[in-house]
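One thing: can you check what follows?
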Amino acid sequence: MLIEENLTMEQKMINIINHNYQNYVNAFEVFLFKDHHNSMAILEECEKTSTKAIERYEEYKLAAKKYASMKSALYFSEEKWRDCKMYQEFLFNMSPVRFRLAHPAQSKNVDTIAEDIMDDDIFAKYKIALDDAELTLSDIKEIANECQSACPADIYFKEPSELVEVFRYMELQNLNNLLYCEELSAPLETVKNTMIQAEKMFDKDIASLSEIIGRLESGIMWEEERAKYLEDYAKKLINQELRHLIIDDSILNLYVFVEDCFETRVAPNDANLTMLEMISGISKKYGDELLIMEKVPKEIISALGESCVQENMATMRLAEKAAKQVAELHRLTASLIKTFAPPYKKPPCKEPRNRSAVKRPPALKKVPSRKLTPEEEEYLEHFTDFCKYTDNPKDFGVDTSVMQKLARYQLKEKEDASEERIVFGASSKSGKEGKK
């Protein structure tokens, strides 16, 4: 039973496959028929188009022949036109200047006689370029327009012999120029040789001058350095050793003692005594004074020493008091100036305008400066670097105003009065002690 069922199933499948196969065969036959029909139609169309292409190719060959003949004719005519233009330009340039000025339309690029020069590229001006040998439509139009607008050419030369005569004349001119150049060659050589010799001489002179200048520069630099060194050394001596020798207390005291001794002892008898007599008198007086001082009791010497100490202390106190008074005076002066000064006003953004004319105050009279005193001149000359022609004494601590001189005199009178008071009190005390 199972085998029969399998056989029936296989038979059904075989029948289905046979049916499908028959359908495929029928469809393929239909496709072959349609394909054959379409292929035949395409072959007919190909035959028609091939005949048309052959006809068109024959027409193309005829047109190409006509185009080639026209192109060759056009190129030939263009070459002839370019040659004519080139020959016309050449003949015009070879014409005299008067003819060229009378016919300016012949040359478009020539405006003046100076610019009317033979161009080296005259033959290449109307020559066909190698990289652009094919004519374009614009070139053809340009040539046609130029031919239509061109005026009739006026040529100076009527016969070829005239041009030959011009060439002969140019040849003669060139020969004359060559002869003239040959005649000038020898003088030119001499001029060149003299120029070379002069250049060598100038080089030698310049080298010698530069050497002399270098030596002079080195000498000037050495002299400047030496002068600077001597100046610095002189300033050092003046500001250190010499200044110390002049300002030292022992030197000043010795100067005062010698001056006082000279004024009291030597000056009255300066015209009567010799040097030996003066020295002997001074030594004798000095010995007498020493003997007198040795005879003075010790109590008097101690009292005099105390009085000297007190006098020095009083002088120091007086100087301190005077310094305090001067500082107080400066402070009071500054406060008075600040008190009487006008109040500070902030300036406005825009300067106000006056309604009426401003009355200007009278100009202050310039107070004349006083002359320097002998003491001030001596101080400025020996103890400072003051120059009376260029420097201001005020920069070195010396005020030349009249008010400062008056204040100095008042202060000096006060100091003298106080010193006299102190000296008088000390002398009265020493007298009382001596009486005791």
